[in-house]
């Protein structure tokens, strides 16, 4: 069952209850969790947070923590499996699922209130209820009629049934054939925090990092990514007017599409950038030379390009984007700029949401203990 | 000099205004003796000089010395009482033995009566709205937040909250719990606050 009203049907239900928060570990889920945690803290909703990595972990996490818990919020997990079947919950436990993994399991969609999906994706072609589920027709019915008529009716019924089953099979096959990603969960959580008027820069930043993660990991097509961030753009724009320079704020700016160039040297960033490196065939023997040529065209001395970006000359630092853009057509490169979310902090260099994605990914994937 | 001892007493207790000193009964006894002699001398002189007014000034000086002694002694006792009051809020109804030694018997009796009074007052609080008393000593300053985010460092097992909820504390699990419930566990090192 889908939730119609984010605020009344989801958030207000949680108010004043203990919540079990099961969060998958990907960038989007972490950002969503941050936004939700911020909301829960404001409203003193006590929660238990458990990170889950797979179905087995989901099961153990639920079994360990299900005492006295009536509301479970699943972030980026559980949408694609039949929750009621796998977790075997009590009758009165309610699951709120906020999952960007698609397709959503059909049993979750047509659950009568125990599993509630927080966000309805319009892109999903969910089969109709009648096409999937059907009461097993009472075979006993009209048994007392005898003779040819009854036999014919039974045959007819069976044939119908078989046709229906075949149709169901095709529908289900088409529906579950491909798995893909939907709108980032953090965008939905951001919408919620906007509805309860608590959309500060922390929530905005978390939302933009999640949106950037879908772009960086190519989880969605670029056009879809742009549509997903539509609401985010509006929120960011509406906070621009509060122009006080003493606090952090999120801005939307044109930025070079070079991951992590603010933290590395320019040369290293160019060498690893997905829009530059494959197009210039940097993996070949001649790669190093072409890269040097690009730098020369851009007017960056090697010595400058090899030291870290933050200690480069100020003029060069400002001209990175413009010189890269002017050189791109000559080297037959795609457009090397994009609209990026930046976090501007007082007394600190700005931070890009894209860089944050890679930083979080590194932390998730690097197992230290 | 008159009232020298009592000034000494006050100065000593003034030297450490935050902590409580041992009760100086020896010194107080000396001061009381001084007051007693002053009083006897005054009485003799007053009786002897009903018609002769030449001794009246002496009597007056002694009398004001007496009053000063009395006033200073009261100030000393009062400041100790205030300190004992704060002891109740800091240590609770049971004093550690080393603090107990610092109090005189009368002071200790006052302490236990104050403590009983406070306890019965706290129990009576909020009874009309269904609470069974509020522990006023719990948060002497308004807390920043009623809840806090904690991470569990050991496999502690089940924790039952005062509202009946059961929380499973496992290693590395994170919870957002009422601060009053976790304080003791944080102090024991089972939980760690996340800031």
Automatic annotation (TrEMBL), chain A:
One of its GO terms (molecular function) is DNA replication origin binding. GO terms for biological process: DNA replication initiation; double-strand break repair via break-induced replication; mitotic DNA replication preinitiation complex assembly. Keywords: Cell cycle, DNA replication, Nucleus. Pfam families: CDC45 (PF02724). It comes from the Eukaryota. It is found in: Nucleus. This is Cell division control protein 45.
UniProtKB/TrEMBL annotation, chain B:
One of its GO terms (cellular component) is GINS complex. Residues 144-194 form the DNA replication complex GINS protein PSF1 C-terminal domain. CDD domains: GINS_A_psf1 (cd11710), GINS_B_Psf1 (cd21696). The keyword Manganese does not apply. Required for correct functioning of the GINS complex, a complex that plays an essential role in the initiation of DNA replication, and progression of DNA replication forks. GINS complex seems to bind preferentially to single-stranded DNA. Component of the GINS complex. This is DNA replication complex GINS protein PSF1.
């Amino acid at each position: 069952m889908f939730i119609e009203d984010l605020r009344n049907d989801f958030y207000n239900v949680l108010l004043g209850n203990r919540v079990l928060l099961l969060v998958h570990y990907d960038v989007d889920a972490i950002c969503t969790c941050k936004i939700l945690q911020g909301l829960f803290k404001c409203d003193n909703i006590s929660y238990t947070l458990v990170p889950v990595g797979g179905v087995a972990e989901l099961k153990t996490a639920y079994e360990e923590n299900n005492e006295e818990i009536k509301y479970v919020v699943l972030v980026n997990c559980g949408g694609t499996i039949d929750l009621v079947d796998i977790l075997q919950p009590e009758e009165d436990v309610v699951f709120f699922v906020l999952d960007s993994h698609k397709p959503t399991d059909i049993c979750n969609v047509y659950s009568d209130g125990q599993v509630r999906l927080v966000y309805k994706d319009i892109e999903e072609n969910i089969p109709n209820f009648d096409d999937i589920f059907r009461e097993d027709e009472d075979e006993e019915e009209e048994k007392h009629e005898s003779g040819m008529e009854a036999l014919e009716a039974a045959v007819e019924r069976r044939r119908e049934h078989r046709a229906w089953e075949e149709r169901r099979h095709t529908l289900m096959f088409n529906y579950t054939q491909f798995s893909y990603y939907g709108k980032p969960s953090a965008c939905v959580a951001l919408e919620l925090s906007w509805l309860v008027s608590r959309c500060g820069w922390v929530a905005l930043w978390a939302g933009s990092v999640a949106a950037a993660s879908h772009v960086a990991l190519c989880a969605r097509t670029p056009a879809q990514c742009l549509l997903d961030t539509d609401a985010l753009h509006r929120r960011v724009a509406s906070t621009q007017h509060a122009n006080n320079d003493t606090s952090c704020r999120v801005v939307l700016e044109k930025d070079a599409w070079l991951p992590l160039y603010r933290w590395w040297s320019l040369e290293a960033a160019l060498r690893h950038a997905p829009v530059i490196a494959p197009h210039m065939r940097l993996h070949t023997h001649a790669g190093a030379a072409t890269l040097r040529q690009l730098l020369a065209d851009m007017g960056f001395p090697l010595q400058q390009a090899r030291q870290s970006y933050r200690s480069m000359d100020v003029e060069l630092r400002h001209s990175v984007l413009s010189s890269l853009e002017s050189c791109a057509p000559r080297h037959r490169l795609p457009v090397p700029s994009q609209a990026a979310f930046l976090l501007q902090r007082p007394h600190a260099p700005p931070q890009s949401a894209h860089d944050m994605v890679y930083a979080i990914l590194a932390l998730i994937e690097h197992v230290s203990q | 000099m008159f009232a020298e001892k009592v000034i000494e007493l006050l100065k000593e207790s003034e030297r450490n205004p935050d902590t409580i000193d041992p009760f100086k009964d020896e010194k107080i006894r000396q001061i009381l003796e001084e007051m007693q002699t002053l009083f006897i001398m005054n009485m003799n002189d007053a009786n002897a000089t009903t018609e002769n007014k030449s001794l009246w000034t002496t009597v007056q000086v002694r009398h004001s010395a007496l009053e000063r002694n009395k006033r200073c002694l009261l100030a000393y006792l009062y400041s100790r009482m205030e300190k004992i009051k704060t002891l109740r809020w800091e240590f609770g109804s049971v004093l550690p033995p080393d603090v107990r030694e610092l109090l005189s018997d009368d002071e200790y009796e006052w302490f236990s009566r104050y403590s009983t009074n406070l306890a019965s007052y706290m129990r009576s609080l909020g009874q009309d709205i269904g609470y069974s008393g509020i522990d006023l000593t719990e948060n002497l300053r308004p807390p920043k937040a009623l809840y806090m985010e904690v991470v569990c460092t050991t496999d502690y097992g089940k924790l039952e909250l005062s509202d009946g909820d059961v929380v499973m504390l496992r290693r590395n699990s994170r919870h957002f719990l009422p601060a009053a419930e976790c304080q003791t566990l944080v102090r024991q090192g089972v939980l760690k606050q996340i800031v």
